[in-house]
Specification:
The chain is an alpha/beta fold. The chain contains 17 helices and 5 strands. A 5-stranded parallel beta sheet has the order 2-3-1-4-5, with helices on both faces. The N terminus is likely disordered. It holds the Pfam family Sulfotransfer_1.
Length: 355
């Protein structure tokens, strides 16, 4: 069972136990480690009162980019680092609010540039599925926080995520770990590289990591798992954030715009998080065009520079029309609910509804 799934399971067990037991003092310190979709169970779990300790600190977080997973956040992180008025941690995906909150607010503050007048923020795609109790505490800590979410076609996003998941599993990695050089052409920054992998083992892992190594049923089963359901249900997750933050604090970006108007996407993001418009314009105008056009962290085989090859995941899925149809059927309700949310919030774009 994956880290995500086991944590989600513990959510449900905790909720069931609470319902059956008499009232007792709650000391549930593990609530924020869940990356599950917000649910009735998650609303009963307490989150530490970090804001009490934050009052004594001169630290203000300006923005979070919440996701989604496999929606271009690595590209955004790479290019935002080049804006002189934005400061990000060196490591993308700090995971303070779900995995590392027990380390305390001082640990979180140390991840950022100290005594900075820049706009401080971080990008952790799993934050979008944080439970309401955690979101409430984030709001208590940073009520003026600016939020960004990038939405990708749900079939494309799920397929890309499952291909990445398959690759990582066959490299023997634990959830959240990355490997360098195990599969040829993988240039991702790494926490750990698998040592002593022979050439024959590399070939075997490449074969097992290919989507063609698995039947359609494997991917349908994965897509029906709570991990992928929660990450597909954009609307439910975002509604939890809208409960605590005003509409104008949350910017929703169409992933397709990263391809069609990357400069425009970056301009929208930096002005949304508070960068002056003139500075933002200068920033996007001075970006290296090759870097802007570069897709970072492509989920499957690439030429070592992040550029797709004939083995990329979209080509693999296009060769499996029956699987694609099944996936479209499974995610269709999530598309409808998200498009409804977009209209309610005044957006004119929408995701493909597969009709």
């Amino acid at each position: 069972m994956s880290d995500f799934a086991s944590l989600l399971s513990s959510f449900k067990v905790t909720a069931q136990s609470a319902a059956a037991a008499p009232p007792a003092e709650k000391t549930n310190e593990d609530a924020s480690r869940k990356r599950a979709a917000p649910s009735a169970a998650s609303t009963t779990l307490a989150f530490p009162s970090i804001h009490i300790h934050l009052k004594k600190k001169s630290f203000d977080l300006h923005f979070l980019i919440l996701g989604g997973q496999k929606c271009g956040t690595t590209w955004v992180h790479t290019l935002l680092q080049k804006c002189k008025l934005v400061s990000l941690p060196a490591q993308k995906e700090v995971h303070f609010w779900d995995w590392h909150y027990k380390k305390g607010i001082d640990w979180y503050i140390r991840q950022f540039e100290q005594n900075s007048s820049k706009h401080l923020g971080e990008i952790t795609p799993d934050y979008v599925v944080l439970p309401p109790t955690t979101i409430a505490e984030i709001h208590r800590c940073f009520p003026n926080l600016r939020l960004v979410f990038i939405a990708r076609d749900l079939v494309e996003r799920a397929w890309s995520a499952m291909v990445m998941e398959l690759r990582d599993q066959n490299m023997g990695l634990n959830p959240g770990e990355f490997a360098v050089g195990v599969i040829q052409g993988d240039k991702r920054s790494a926490k750990r590289a698998k040592p002593n992998v022979s050439t024959s083992q590399q070939r075997r892992m490449q074969q097992l990591s290919s989507p063609s190594s698995q039947p359609d049923s494997y991917f349908i089963e994965r897509l029906e798992h709570e991990t992928h359901k929660s990450r597909s249900d954009y609307a439910t997750s975002l509604k939890n954030w809208y409960e605590y933050f005003p509409d104008d604090a949350i910017l929703l970006i169409d992933y397709r715009d990263i391809r069609s108007d990357p400069h425009g996407v970056l301009y929208k993001i930096v002005t949304h998080i508070g960068v002056d418009e003139d500075v933002a314009k200068q920033y996007v105008d001075e970006l290296d065009e090759e870097e802007v056009q570069q897709r970072v962290n492509v989920s499957t085989n690439n030429d070592g520079n992040g550029k797709e090859t004939h083995n990329d995941s979209s080509v693999s899925l296009s060769q499996r029309p029956l699987l694609k149809k099944q996936m479209e059927k499974l995610v269709s309700p999530y598309v409808m609910s998200f498009n409804t949310l977009l209209r309610a919030k005044g957006y004119t774009w929408s995701l493909n509804d597969y009709t």
